[in-house]
Amino acid sequence: MAELRIQNMKVGDKFVSPSRVLTATHIETFCNISGMLHPLFLSDAYVKNDSYCQSMGIKGTVAPGQLLLGIMLGNLLGAGLISDVIVQLGQNDIKFVAPAYPNDQLRTEVEVTDTRVTKSGDRVVVHYKWQLKNQDDVVVVKGENDCMFKKGS
After folding, report:
1. For the segment 1-34, what is each residue's pLDDT rounded down to a tens digit?
2. What's this model's pTM, rounded to 2 decimal places?
3. Going by C-beta distance under 8 Å and a sequence separation of 6 or more, which residues neighbour residue 58?
4. Which of 27, 32, 108, 128 could serve as 75's disulfide partner, Cβ 3.0–4.6 Å?
5. Maximum distance among all alpha carbons in the chain?
6. Topology annotation, domain 6-22+63-150
7. Are 141 and 96 in contact (CB under 8 A)?
8. Where are the domains of the chain?
């Protein structure tokens, strides 16, 4: 059976990736590499002692949103759905809806909203909505992407 590719899907088609566990090590590594060394991402003690975090209901260190964007795309790439991508043309309407914590199981859900073949006929531009959800079916981040793919792979 051939792997499903987003460029072969039709408008309205949906896909759900397998889940991936977000670990504290993922968060720490990302923060160290990127320089995003805020204690909100790295210190449970900071979160527990910060009145604003408490008022927002944040229960521990959280993942930076930029890491979650990478996990969303990694889920799709790992599932083979976007393995033929040529270029990401844009990400739009990104909303960080809820925090993601270490040990959350994150999956990506996609719905194709538009496709068009390029003038050359050998590539397809796909517009899709996506959501990254945790194990409790809570959306943590959502948005829309436009990407160009090889046609018919």
Report:
1. 457 899 999 999 999 999 999 999 999 999 999 9
2. 0.92
3. 40, 47, 99
4. 108
5. 58
6. Thiol Ester Dehydrase; Chain A (3.10.129)
7. yes
8. 6-22+63-150
